[in-house]
Amino acid sequence: MSQVDWQSYRCHDFHDELMAAPGKPRDAARMLCDALAGFDADELAERKAAAEVAIRTMGITFTVYSEGSMIDRAWPFDIVPRIIPADEWRRTEAGLKQRVEALNLFIDDLYHDQKVVKDGVLPAEVLAQSVNFRPQCVGVSPPHGTWAHICGSDLVRGDDGTLYVLEDNLRIPSGVSYMLENRNVTKRVLPELFASGHILPVDDYVPQLYDMLAGLSPRYWDDPQVVVLTPGIYNSAYYEHAYLAQQMGVQLVQGSDLVVGDDDVVYMRTIQGLTRVDVIYRRIDDDFLDPEAFRKDSTLGVPGLMRAWRRGTVALANAPGAGVADDKVVYTFVPELIRYYLDQDALLPNVPSYLCMNEGDRHYVQEHLDELVIKPANESGGYGMLIGPHASQAERAEFSRRIESDPRNYMAQPMLKLSTTPTLFEGRPQPRHVDLRPFILSGQDDAYVTTGGLTRVALVEGSLVVNSSQGGGSKDTWIVEMGES
Amino acid sequence: MLMLSRVAENLYWVARYIERAEDTARLVNVTSHLMLDMPERQPLGWSAMIDITGGAEAFERLYDERTDHNVVQFLCADRHNPGSILSALALARENLRTTRDVVPREVWEGVNQLYMTACSQAECGLGPSCLDLFLGQVINGCQTLTGLVEGTLSHGEPRTFMLLGQQVERADMTTRIIDVRSGNLLPRNDDEILPFVHLQWMSVLKSLTAYQMYRQHVRLRVCAVDVLTFLLQDPHLPRSVARSVRDLSDALQDLPRHERALAAATRIRADVAEADVSALVSSPEALSAFIDEVQVGLGRLHDAIALTYFPSIHALGEVEPINVAQA
Q1: A&B contacts, CB < 8 Å
Q2: Domain segments of chain B as ranges
Q3: Would you call B316 and A268 a contact, using CB atoms and an 8 Å cutoff?
Q4: Min distance A272 CA to chain B CA atoms (Å)
Q5: Minimum-distance CB partner of B3 among A256, A260, A270
Q6: Confidence band for B327, pLDDT divided at 50, 70 and 90
Q7: A18-60: per-residue pLDDT in tens?
Q8: Which residue in A296, A301, A297 sits closest to A280, CA to CA?
Q9: B151 Cβ under 8 Å from any chain A Cβ
């Protein structure tokens, strides 16, 4: 029977998260690699099966729409964790906090004096063409000046071993429940490895989230009524909405459960009557939040919600309009924004990017479409992108036309050599590309960063697409304390 | 934690639809058995069944003729009939889908499974031999769900709303059965002796699974006045109108702001308790009028529950006193 043989694990010319070279695990991964090598094939298969059973019985699902009907799919999961040494993580954490602090100052500036534009740091046309800038938010001062309370930033590691920020999700980033559940599953499947105590725990997130939300309450003297607002069961992240509400012990509400009174206060309809709501963790896009202020045809939202928010009778997390900083063109300015607002150098580098609105960059992009990844400014979930090297001639020509007609809407990045990590297929670890989405909470006090984050893995050999809606899976992420031992 | 109005309404309807599916299955089951006992010259149409379930209008729209096949199809499997067994199960499922986190996981799985099984069974056809199996599965499945809720859902508001839905539906169905089944069993004049009346009164009892209980408690030969007294007023029979409304009244006491609904329930209880059954038996018209009154009462009770607890479609300000709970 074949066992896990690290000698035969080949990671080609990518950086591998666990293996420094064939047969040579990185320091932080040694304990794990030795343990896996000690399993025989049956034992490995049993552990994998145990994970599948755990996922089914715990009911961890995500929702996909297929042929007009809704399907709950089991969460695709790999049992081999991805490992990051704690000292590297502490530097990353500091970089993420720095980034989100600057982004919050930036958003607040945009909705007030727009000094950043007046001082010539951000071109006026970038702001003018931003689809996520909400005029309805101008002049509003949310509690503590914080707009992006929950941020999910995607990190990728290049072949030079550096972690780069690929994008910041400041609207309604999802995935944190899977991060927490991945740990629960892994604890069941590889319990002996947790006994060492070197793996840092992740489960402080939910209490931190609740405290942050409660801290936004306009009625700080009273027990705050916090709710999670979901678009409903047909949303792909409904599992997460229900999970977070349940874990925090708060109500999971839909738009129709809430009503805004003539007093501009938000109430929820309960069997006791109408009950005041103080803080809404909303998982509905700005566009659908309030038909009075945004899309009139929205049936998911709450008429009058923006009125109440502007009056300060209710807190919304994230604040409407926060998405203005979650634009792939604004992204390229983040290092300058950090310098401008904090007078610091960015601790975490951006992926080098070309802005199609700059003529020089645009020509370069159009001439090198076959080497670049082209992204529209405001899409998420990996939609609307062109992966140059994998695209057909016709697709590249089409993108060239689109860039020509709307340059502000496109940016390009070199094809990254994303790092790989061992992932089990047919009883053998094989390299698969991964990214990492940590979550950053910002409220009144110091920001909080998850211990690690959600590692997403492209399950198809050679693929770089990690989105669960497009064939991606995930795995546990271990931040491992090195040292004495 | 406070209970959302939407959740309360969904759970109420989950229980109503499960009860409706079960009661309809019982009714079809007993009728199909009874028909086997009736002589050919005394045909008992399936026709009455359409009236019991209040589906005459829907039926006329969908079918030309009240043939056995059409009626069975309409009552059991027709998705265009909102009162059919499959529609009721589908609606129970849709109502539970958004509130399944409130009840134990087995309840959701049970509803799901019952619906799927019933659908595939119905697709295979509902001929005489298959019908028995189909109905048996539905009745068993509904009973299992009721048992699951009873045995696993904590006493509290979610359970209370399920009980309200179940009892409102049960009382409603019992009165419908009495209404339609008794109307043509009661003599128009004293000399008239209808054949097979005895058999038919037994079937009324059986459709409510009340035959054995009747024998134990009444111990008399099955006769109209005793059967009606038993089904309307017996304090112990789970499906008597009096018992359903009493259970419901007890449950309402646990809810906040129950005054309006409790008053509606109390009024039904008084009407039922004060009914002079022997007088009703001697006049089909009087019985029919009485049943109508009870049904109107049940409708009023439902409205009171909905108005007090369920999400209002009115804008704020049009609703009655705003009760802002402040801790």
Answers
A1: 79
A2: 1-153, 155-327
A3: no
A4: 6
A5: A270
A6: very low
A7: 999 999 999 999 999 999 999 988 999 999 999 988 887 777 7
A8: A301
A9: no
Measured distance CA(A233)–CA(A267) in Å, rounded: 22
Report which of A250, A341, A438 is spatially closest to residue A241, judged by C-alpha positions.
Answer: A250
What pTM did the predictor assign?
A: 0.83
Distance from CA of B72 to the nearest CA of A (A): 29
Question: Would you give the DSSP letter of residue A83?
Answer: E
Concatenating the DSSP letter of every residue in A145-203 gives: G-S-SEEEEEEEE-TTS-EEEEEEE-SS---HHHHHHHHHHHHHHSHHHHTTS-BPP-T
Could you tell me the CA-to-CA distances from B271 to B91, B177, B265 in Å, in that order?
32, 18, 10
CA distance A204 to A448: 10
Q: Do B322 and A274 touch (CB under 8 A)?
A: yes
Long-range contacts of B297-301 (CB under 8 A, 24+ apart): B297/B264, B297/B267, B297/B268, B297/B271, B298/B168, B298/B171, B298/B172, B298/B175, B298/B268, B300/B264, B300/B267, B301/B168, B301/B248, B301/B261, B301/B264, B301/B265, B301/B268
Nearest residue of A to residue B313 by CA position? A256
Taking the Cβ of residue B314 and every Cβ of chain A, the question of whether any pair is shorter than 8 Å is answered with: no
pLDDT tens across A220-263, in order?
A: 778 899 999 999 888 888 889 999 998 998 999 999 999 999 99
Least confident range of A158-172, A253-267, B125-139:
B125-139
Report pLDDT for A98.
97
Domains of chain A listed by start with CATH number = 219-313 (3.40.50.11290), 355-414 (3.30.1490.270)
Helices B241-252 + B157-183 axis angle, to 10: 160
> B11, B99 in Cβ contact below 8 A?
yes
CA distances (Å), A140 to each of A110, A134, A137, A270, A307, in order? 11, 11, 6, 30, 11
